[in-house]
From TrEMBL:
Tree of life domain: Bacteria
Protein name: HTH-type transcriptional regulatory protein TyrR
UniProt cross-references to SUPFAM superfamilies, sorted A to Z: Homeodomain-like, P-loop containing nucleoside triphosphate hydrolases, PYP-like sensor domain (PAS domain)
Alphabetized CDD domains for the sequence: AAA, PAS
Length: 577
């Protein structure tokens, strides 16, 4: 049961006691009245005495702490008959319940007295099983009842707080006292938060009214939120970690662009893609950078039986040998110095029941190839530090822009791994060998970027012919970037060859670098440096491959990319073939 349920039951208890015509006082062992019903107020008015005078007279004539039974007590204004009943909480006597009426005006039957005891025992039992701390106070904040959970939260004993001000519970921040003040100003349900001895508390106060709808009693439910907030923080940390993790491994959700297949070669590939999508065989996709290997992979995935399962991409060229095993296979908590406390799930386990793309597989070292081969053969992975391996069910696709068989002959790629990967081989020819696809691709990108940037650009026949004559060493990625540039930069809507700002690698090509205007030397060097990095990134996506193409150190590539912000933001566009 929670604090809300306890409040509702306490409201029922108050309503029951107020329905009894006898005056009812609950008196603490130190003589303070901590509860009275509506009839008690009527009794005081009829006798013409205050509550202190009435309780004082009772204490002078009977033992209100330990007494029990029926007594006649003389008070100023008349004689009253008192039924003294023990008031207990959690099995310990806390004082007495006094049921009183003026002599000669009997109002309570024996059954009603029994009902009073039953109601009090029931509410006591309910409060003790509530997980939240419960404190009941009068409108002035004087504590009437508390439960065991409240004793635990505040580290107090109920005998020390009953009949005392609410302020005693939270002298540090007065959360409960603040509730009492607010509820006296505007008696309605109020929620406040605060701390007590480094505990984070959520306090909910609810009013109980008398017969005239005046604030009479306040029930406060106090939840210790420390454990819950700690759990929330851990969940948030895990969410951020997972988000970062998913970003690192490129979890695909979209289907990518269409496969443009007008050439005989691409029509054959498209047919093969739909055939292999229905089987579970390993697929090896090869081709130069920018030919659209990733889109072919997407097409296989999204037409396969695993399309609703995880699709994980691993850039093998971006994972250092020292991290290969921990990234792909994961590790247990405390497996090595610097390991995350919660351990880490490897890429293979993340892709379980789904599809795993090993992009740039030709970049793997021989040591990494051995570890990968074992997983493919055994269909199981073993986290670093784990006692036993875990079975994984993964559809494997590998992609590379290298000639793996030549690497096998050179001894840089394992022959047994080559045969494991080369079950079904799809080779995507470069764009210069399938020129029939250039115009359809240009039209696709023209439509896409016109819609993206809100343009209405058109391509002239001269520009179509010019684009057809280019060799496109960067393949589709280069063509895509060229079309985007022509959509964005020129002010004219009719595009001609003069608007082309690419390399120009066909029969119309000239020097690789053209000087169109004079600029300061330093600025020219910086612009060329940035342009070279951007071009290399578009073509290779791997700092290792970029360094090789630019003939500089990989560390230099990383430093320069960071300097110019190259690769820091992926463009929001789909690839297409």
């Amino acid at each position: 049961m929670n604090g809300e349920a306890a409040f509702r039951r306490y409201a029922d208890f108050d309503a029951i006691l107020n329905s009894i015509y006898c005056a009812i006082f609950i008196v603490h062992t130190d003589g303070r009245a901590v509860y009275r019903n509506g009839a008690a107020d009527e009794l005081k008015a009829e006798l013409g005495v205050t509550e202190d005078e009435l309780i004082g007279a009772l204490e002078a004539q009977i033992d209100v702490v330990h007494g029990q039974g029926r007594f006649a007590v003389a008070v100023e204004g008349g004689m009253i008959i008192c039924h003294l009943l023990p008031w207990t909480q959690a099995g310990q006597r806390q004082g007495s319940i006094i049921v009183a009426h003026i002599s000669g005006k009997e109002r309570c039957s024996a059954q009603e007295l029994d009902n009073v005891i039953d109601v009090l025992e029931e509410i006591d039992a309910i409060l003790e099983v509530v997980a939240d701390g419960i404190v009941v106070a009068d409108k002035n904040g004087v504590i009437i009842r508390v439960n065991k959970a409240l004793e635990t939260t505040f580290g107090i004993k109920r005998r020390d707080v009953l009949g005392r001000s609410m302020e005693i519970l939270d002298r540090e921040h007065s959360v409960c006292g603040e509730l009492v003040r607010k509820m006296n100003e505007d008696p309605k349900r109020i929620v406040v938060s605060g701390t007590y001895k480094q505990k984070e508390l959520l306090c909910t106060g609810a009013p109980i009214f008398d017969r005239q709808h005046r604030l009479k009693t306040i029930v406060i439910s106090i939840q210790d939120m420390s454990a819950l907030n700690t759990l929330r923080k851990k969940l948030e940390e895990q969410r951020l970690y997972t988000k970062s993790y998913m970003r690192e491994i490129s979890l695909f959700n979209g289907s990518g662009g269409p496969i443009v297949a007008h050439s005989p070669a691409m029509k054959k590939i498209l047919h093969l893609v739909h055939v292999v999508a229905d089987v579970e065989s390993v697929v090896l996709i090869t081709g130069e950078s920018g030919t659209g290997k990733e889109v072919v992979v997407n097409e296989i995935y999204h037409t396969s039986r695993r399309k609703d399962k995880p699709f994980i991409k691993i850039n093998c060229g971006a994972i250092p040998d020292t991290l290969f095993e921990s990234e792909l296979f994961g590790y247990e908590s405390g497996a090595f110095t610097g390991a995350r406390r919660q351990g880490k799930v490897g890429f293979f386990e993340l892709a379980n029941k789904g599809t795993l793309l090993l992009d740039e597989v030709g970049e793997l070292s021989l040591a990494a190839q051995v570890k990968l081969l074992r997983v493919i053969q055994e269909k199981e992975v073993q986290r670093i530090g784990a006692a036993k391996p875990v079975k994984v069910d993964v559809r494997l696709i590998a992609a590379t822009n290298k000639d793996l068989w030549s690497m096998v002959c050179q001894g840089t790629f394992r022959q047994d791994l080559y045969y494991r990967l080369n079950v079904i081989h799809i080779h995507i020819p470069p764009l210069r060998e399938r020129r029939e696809d250039i115009i359809p691709l240009v039209n696709y990108f023209l439509k896409y970027f016109n819609e993206k940037y809100g343009k209405e650009k058109e391509i002239s026949p001269e520009l179509y012919r010019f684009l057809m004559r280019q060799d496109w060493p960067g393949n589709i990625r280069e063509l895509e970037n060229a079309v985007e540039t022509m959509i964005v930069l020129p002010s004219e809507n009719k595009l001609t060859p003069s608007h082309f700002v690419g390399k120009g690698t066909g029969e119309d090509s000239g020097a690789a670098v053209k000087v169109q205007r004079l600029v300061p030397w330093k600025r020219a060097v910086e612009e060329m440096e940035k342009e070279l990095l951007m071009q290399a990134y578009r073509e290779y996506r791997s700092t290792r491959a970029m360094a090789k193409a630019l003939e500089i150190d990989q560390s230099t590539v990383v430093r320069k990319m960071k300097k110019w912000g190259v690769g820091s933001h992926e463009k929001d566009k789909n690839d297409a073939i």
